[in-house]
Design brief:
Helices cover 0% and strands 57% of the residues. By secondary structure, it is mainly β.
């Protein structure tokens, strides 16, 4: 089992910045991907950004140039630096870890609220 502990959400004005952190513990697959998903009210959960244990990254188009995902493999921690935040970024953000070879199982954090006011 893998446990994910998120931190860093909150309320910020449009144009501001927030940094999310997610620390993984437990039986972590050596080749894995960690990422951030978000879910706004009435919408489906969507992938925001993902980074593999080898350092490859992927972003949803709406956050490219504003968000940066990074990870510290020694600490099993992934970060999401969010700049130039917009009201449409408001959502619950969930940390995710998946075995990159098998594609499963998926592990999820409890979620952290990000609210961007206009």
């Amino acid at each position: 089992q893998v446990q994910l502990a998120e931190s860093g959400g909150g309320l910020v004005q449009a144009g501001g910045s927030l940094r999310l952190s997610c620390a993984a513990s437990g039986s972590i697959p050596s080749i894995n991907a960690m990422g951030w998903y978000r879910q706004a009210p009435g919408k489906q959960r969507e992938l925001v950004a993902l980074i593999t244990s080898g350092g490859s990254t992927n972003y949803v188009a709406s956050v490219k140039g504003r968000f940066t995902i990074s990870r510290d493999n020694a600490k099993n921690t992934v970060y999401l630096q969010m700049n130039l935040l917009k009201p449409e970024d408001t959502a619950v953000y969930y940390c995710n870890l998946v075995d990159w070879i098998k594609g499963e199982p998926n592990y999820w954090g409890q979620g952290t609220q990000v609210t961007v006011s206009s």
